[in-house]
């Protein structure tokens, strides 16, 4: 059965775990971790400076333990967890940051709060949102958790930044904004309630007053003949919950170290004997306030447990998913490190091959080189200029030398063809280069798409460099092989093509092969018709070769570059990695510090949520 005691203790434990594991609420946008702190029900104590806030807390606890002084005394949130013990048990206090030390002298508790505050903020008057956790075990308290916040102020004093007023208000609002937060708004009775800093802030975040408990202090210091009944009876400012009046110890009592138990008795006597407040005496005083808050906190916790449980389970799923994405921590031995590197390389290689083979986009760009770029480049070769009558005449004449050819200008044909075939080298090399650049781009994309590699920027760079080096070797092989195809066309012409030429000429109908041959030399040595015929024949041969190369160049490129990239791009890298020692492998697995920090924070937060889930599961709930 879930009693009042164990549900409050449950939240206390989760709050302590939150602080230990760095969950103080708040966030920094999309990168922020899920926070459990903000979902936990709490009681936030809010009040202006000199409102009697510290005295109220000490009255509830029954001990002097809070720092006192002028200006801002509370500069860090104090999460005060009260644990009721058996009658006669010794009272003691424990700090979360000093888990093995028990404080039985509460003046030392005050000193430790001051020292722990200074540890984060220094001796300045700065504030910090990181809470101090203090647990007090006593037979004189009820089970209750209170969060003491810095007192609201209107002006910065010497040594404080001008922003301190807004900084304090922002910190307080970060607590009281939460729908699970009970607001304990403390106001002094000897000031107009309309000017109360606590009530003004509570009204802004809780306009209906559902979460606000109003506390009126310093009733004994009001001017003679006046009272605070309009406030305590809800006429001056109405809340959903009744106002509670408190009579704190006077400064003289504090100076004389009047015992808090005696002070509580005097407070009860004040209300019981007051002609103004005696009819409200049963609902006044610090003891009543503590019981009221404990009951309300227990009710809120019970109501919120289902939503907290849902949040915990949802956050565990999200954090485990992110941890999977971030990857497991790196082992320290060389064998495990080498295995991890090879696994990462294989994951990259799989994605790279998927790009080439069509499982992912990009490989089609290689086909585009062969289907569009290469044919277009071949069509744009300057054969019209090369086979112009004037150029053909020049080359044939130079090839003939001082003796004109007798039947057909064979040397002229060869020179025309060989010089024309040289033009094919450009498109051939361009195809090799284009596929090379596509391959490099696919390497870059594949590295970026290999999620596991994102942890290791050094390995990414080394892997990319190794791939680019391998692709460069493949490009050189592809260039040599592809240009060899062009050179082979020059090295041995297709004789059958030229043997068919006389037969084609005889089909003109003259029946005289001589009639198909160029006429006798004129004054220009040969006629233009003769050179046009030579140009046409060479053009036909070049067209045949172009069709051949359009088919064979892609074969060469794929064989030397694409096929080898799929088969052996990482072979050299594997052999290099296999020779590295543990220190060198660790360098490759040097993670991004930001990612390492993110993993650590996710791990801590996941530990927190699992701990909270176990705590909740350990409680037997009743409806």
UniProtKB/TrEMBL annotation:
CDD domains (alphabetical): DLP_1
PANTHER family in alphabetical order: DYNAMIN, PROTEIN 1C, PUTATIVE, EXPRESSED-RELATED
Keyword Hydrolase: yes
PROSITE patterns the record matches: G_DYNAMIN_1, G_DYNAMIN_2, GED
Keyword annotations: Cell cycle, Cell division, Cytoplasm, GTP-binding, Hydrolase, Microtubule, Motor protein, Nucleotide-binding
Dynamin-type G domain segment(s): 37-306
InterPro entries from the UniProt entry: Dynamin, Dynamin_GTPase, Dynamin_GTPase_CS, Dynamin_N, Dynamin_stalk, G_DYNAMIN_dom, GED, GED_dom
Family, per entry: Belongs to the TRAFAC class dynamin-like GTPase superfamily. Dynamin/Fzo/YdjA family.
Location(s) in or outside the cell: Cytoplasm, Cytoskeleton, Phragmoplast
The protein, known as: Dynamin-related protein 1E
Superkingdom, taxonomy of origin: Eukaryota
Assembly, per entry: Forms homodimer and may homooligomerize and heterooligomerize to form the phragmoplastin complex. Binds to PHIP1.
Listed GO CC annotations: membrane; microtubule; phragmoplast
Domain GED: 531-623
Organism annotation: Panicum virgatum (Blackwell switchgrass)
Broad class of where this protein is predominantly found: cytoplasm
Pfam family, one: GED
GO MF term list: GTP binding; GTPase activity; microtubule binding
Single GO BP term: cell division
